Structure formats: C-alpha cells, structure tokens
C-alpha cells in the first residue's frame, strides 16, 4: 500500500456492542428519571383513585381535554371498590378504597419518577422498581423502594361523575 492509500478499518465489533449497550443504559436511566423525589402534598378532600381490578392500563377511559380541571375523568361506576383506575393523560390515579370514598394521587412514582402501571390487591404499583402505594392515602407499602407517598390530587365527585378539581 502506498502512502497515498490509507487503510480505513471498520470499528471493532466489541466497540459497537459497547456503544449500543451504553445507549440502552442511558435510555433506561432516562425512563426512570432523576433520583430526586418530589415533595408530595397531604391528601385533602376527595383526593385520588387508582386503576383497580388488575387492569392497570386505564385504557378506554381517558381524561377529556388532557387533564383540564372540571373535565370528567370517569363515572363513579368505572372505579372499582377496593381498587382504582389510572388516567395517564391526566397524570392521576383515582381510587375507591371503600364504597363511595374516592381518592386521587399523582400517577408518578416518588422513587424514580416512573409512571405507575397498575392498581391491584389494594395497592398502586410501579413497574420500574416494584414500589407499591396504598390506595387509601398514597403511602408507600413496607418493602417498597419508595419512601415518600404519592402526591394527592384534587378531584370532585358530582352525582356519578368524577372530575379533576
């Protein structure tokens, strides 16, 4: 090979695999958010519901208007007693711990800011690291990595309608 012809080699397979792995780790860390927790407020009034009965996704009942106050989230009959429903578009979980008692909380886990994904067995559950929160007051359950409760959200129940306040 002459000095005017230089050989350009492709990156080593090991370098490509390492770069792809680094991108994957960065994406996972971004999905979980920062390590700083939010400072949740105390539950007041009719605060919060979660997605219950094991459905978890909250599909089929989206907040109209993307979570604007006064917009109906759901009918009271849509929120199972002892469970709840997640409204991701509105950023809220609505629960009904006891018949006729509705609560609302943020849908963002206080551990690493992942969105919660299900309401099952009396808890609001985060898929990222296994945090579980009470449907009654948003407090973290023993053994959860989260140590701070979910922030309360304001809702109002008018007749058979659950709305953001």
In brief, what are we looking at here?
The chain is α+β, with helices and mostly antiparallel strands and 165 residues long.
Structure, described:
The chain is α+β, with helices and mostly antiparallel strands and 165 residues long. It has a domain at 64-164: Rieske Iron-sulfur Protein (3-layer Sandwich), CATH 2.102.10.10. Helices cover 12% and strands 24% of the residues. The chain has 1 helix and 9 strands, in the order αβββββββββ. The protein has one helix at 13-32, and strands spanning 72-75, 83-87, 92-98, 101-106, 118-120, 123-125, 132-134, 155-158, 161-164.
List the helices and strands and how they pair.
Elements: H1 13-32, E1 72-75, E2 83-87, E3 92-98, E4 101-106, E5 118-120, E6 123-125, E7 132-134, E8 155-158, E9 161-164
Antiparallel strand pairs: 1-9, 2-3, 3-4, 5-6, 6-7, 8-9
Q: At CATH's second level, what is the architecture of the domain at 64-164? A: 3-layer Sandwich
**Largest pleated sheet:** 3 strands, antiparallel
CATH H-level superfamily of the domain at 64-164: Rieske [2Fe-2S] iron-sulphur domain
Strand content: 15-25%
Might you state the CATH topology name of the domain at 64-164? Answer: Rieske Iron-sulfur Protein
The ordered string of helix (H) and strand (E) elements is HEEEEEEEEE
Number of strands: 9
Overall geometry: globular
Widest β-sheet, arrangement of strands: 1-9-8
Give the helix proportion (percent range).
10-25%
- Name of the CATH first level of the domain at 64-164: Mainly Beta
Q: Tell me the Rg in angstroms.
A: 22 Å
Global structural class = alpha+beta
* Measured distance between first and last alpha carbons: 76 Å
How many helical stretches?
1
Poorly predicted tracts of residues: 22-66
